Amino acid sequence: MADLSINFAGIRSPNPFWLASAPPANSGAQIHRAFEAGWGGAVWKTIGPPVLNVSNRYGAWHHGGQRMLGINNVELISDRPLDVNLREIADVKRAWPDRAVLVSAMVESKPESWHDIIRQIEDTGADGIELNYGCPHGMSERGMGAAVGQVPEYCEQITRWVMEAAHIPVIVKLTPNITNIVSPARAAVAAGANALSLINTLNSITGVDLDTLEISPNIGGKGGHGGYAGPAVKPIALNMLAALGSDDVVHGSRLPISAMGGITTWKDAAEFLLLGASSLQVCTAVMHYGYRIVEDLCDGLSNWMDAKGFRTIPEVTARSLGRISDFKDLDLSFRAVARIDSRKCIQCNLCYVACNDTAHQCIDLIDAKGNLVQPYSYAVSSNGKQEATETRPNPRVREVDCVGCRLCYNICPVDQCISMVEVPSGREPVTWDQLVKSRPEVTEDWEAMEKYRREAGIHVH
Amino acid sequence: MAATKGLAEQLPPLSPQEALVEANRCLFCYDAPCTHACPTHIDIPRFIKKISTDNLIGSARTILEANLLGATCARVCPVQELCEGACVLGHDHNPIMIGRLQRYAMDHVSGKDVVKRAPQNGRSVAVIGSGPAGLSCAGELARRGHSVTIFEKRPLGGGLSTYGIIALREPIEASLEEVRMIESLGVHIETGAELGLNLTLEDLRKRFDAIFLSPGLGATQVMGIPGEELIVDGLDYIEQSKLNPSGMCIGRNVLVIGAGNTAIDCATVAKRLGADQVTMIYRRSEHEMSAYPHEYDFVKKEGVEFRFLTQPVRVLSDGGRVTGLACVHMELGEPDSSGRRSAQPAGNGEFVIPADQIVKAVGQQKPPLAQMLGLEVDRGFIKVNTDLETSLTGVFAGGDCIRAKNSASTVMAVQDGKLAAAAIHLRLNTGNTNG
Prior knowledge:
- The complex is a heterodimer.
- By secondary structure, chain A is α/β, with parallel strands linked by helices.
- Chain A has 17 helices and 21 strands.
- The radius of gyration of chain A is 26 Å and the shape is globular.
- The two termini of chain A are 51 Å apart.
- By secondary structure, chain B is an alpha/beta fold.
- Chain B has 3 domains: 107 residues, Fumarate Reductase Iron-sulfur Protein, Chain B, domain 2; 159 residues, 3-Layer(bba) Sandwich (FAD/NAD(P)-binding domain); 133 residues, FAD/NAD(P)-binding domain (3-Layer(bba) Sandwich), CATH 3.50.50.
- Chain B is 34% helix and 19% strand.
- In chain B, the strands form 4 sheets. Chain B has a 5-stranded parallel β-sheet with strand order 3-2-1-4-15, with helices on both faces.
- Chains A and B meet through helix 13 and helix 14 of A and helix 1 and helix 2 of B.
């Protein structure tokens, strides 16, 4: 059985799953229950200066009958008194010596404020500190959170102040509300941080109430942007994680990364590990379903690792990172085409309309006798289940015209009905970068490009 | 136990939550097979997606564009044989509950007049009969600006929907609301008006630019057995169950002769309204039954029993009160003109099934109007061309009266009315009226 334990910048944890610094990690009583459920660690909800919260706090984006694919919040850092939090942190750590107890912090941008909070956190016996440079609402208006994370120079300066005082590992948490995630990460590296974490929440407005025309969620007739998280942000988080792993400076620093952003299932977790994460943080899925989800996060990940022959988490970490590539280095001669398994096809013909209206018009409708037919070609007098099902045409890909866009594969509702099959293109592998170097005219002039396409046998529909 | 269930509508309306979950399950197929299977070709994925986006008025209008009697069809259509039977999710999941979603959308606009009529264009059309075909044709014509009068021999409009569909499937209120909706389009319904009694075709042809005949079929067929006058007519039985269920006389031990959908309805009424024992009598076997398989399953679950290969020969009575039905055993022979195996007496003598009430639902007579008006017929049904025009120019027909082939249904009648209205509209607009 796979060993799920981790040693993250010196912080040990029986599994890689930590509660992210957020409402599920708001109090000692909650974190006790989370640890009872099996969580490997928790990053305490950010402690810092006094705050007052509002209601309503959480907005959500639902789609197609599925609730909360994205959640947005305008809740601030912990609104419980600092000394209460510190006492409970100490209690939890004493009760759970094998779990990772980290504390997220955010204070005014003054060296003495940071020195004070670091000392107070260390006095609790906590295992590590996470610097919240990401909170995008409220605190940022007071010069904290994202107001720091969005300016690499501030990020570096404050991290230096922290590192002056800290004796336990310090993680810098990055905001995604920035053009290039690498810049603040490099700043954290330069300041001597022990680890990185990402992503914090994204600026967002979840909606407008169509009855009242109020912003949703409504806060006394007003509303505003809040931090967005949940399954919907996972692809953004994966991209930012991969961007750090692909940067020479950040990657070269060998700082471990604790990743989060929409992790809901063990599959999500495995993907984050494969793209460079060493620990994983979860919030929205717990907000939705409770602490109990950790059981399948661990069980599913463990079973997958066993099936793949991975014995430890470090063996998984960054396994797929080397496959991240710039477009210019992709093989332009690689060719895949869609193939529909007629035994699995239920003839919803969504692939047909997707290909016809969006892609490259290369899916045909074929009747039972093998004739090409048009949609809606039945007679007005035709009806009944027998006629409707027996005369229904089948979608079929004209592979010669298929550009391998993969739209049909993505929209097909039947698992493994459409597959993207690699086929020989008959062309030598070549990348755009190689073309720029070997045949620059092709990349600059349409006539030269047309000539090149004829030579290479590239037919664009 | 069954008696206490009564005839309240069998399926409850979907709750908003149920409707939303079900609507979201629809894949939104392209050129969807459910739409093909529907005789009126309602754009089903479109109306279902509108439910999922909370656009219920748009959803109902999508249904009504193709089928003005969407509320009735949502309740009475044999969806297992039509839209739901063709649903792509039926392969290895459950098909979408299209009928119930349609009812959900139609219930939302009940009492609201969401279909608009065009300004009057000065043309007038007479419609005979206010059943599904007549209402559909009248509504489609009114929508296009024609002035339409429906002549209905009964006191209430709606035809079979009002009188002949058991309340379990469609309460009378739903049918009458649909009649009201058609009237709201400007259609005038004259009740107590019957062709051949107080109306003549000649008169109508003078007064109107075109005529649509949708009289339905004739009375229940005569079996020609001694004591038949003591047998209750199945259509009357169902009618009473809708108009006056508490005043109905229901036997304790009821026999229903026939095995079509009407016979099943009669057996259901008897069982639900208090009979101890209900037995259906059919001269062929269960394979030749004309009832839909799902109806057969339903009535078996109601506790109705079956006597197959059994032919009634005589009603037994005592002082005018039914005491039993004398029958003979049958055996199956060669297929007859309907393609089903025929039945002949097995030759082993009579036996008696005790009963205190016998109901017959053995099919209706061919439309009497055909002969009365001297129309060309096809196997006794009114013969029409592809425009649904009869042998008399300007006289169109639709519904059960033309259904010489395949089983008749409400939705087929609605489509007839719609197609005939389109043909009549085209005819009147091109000025070639009444020959």
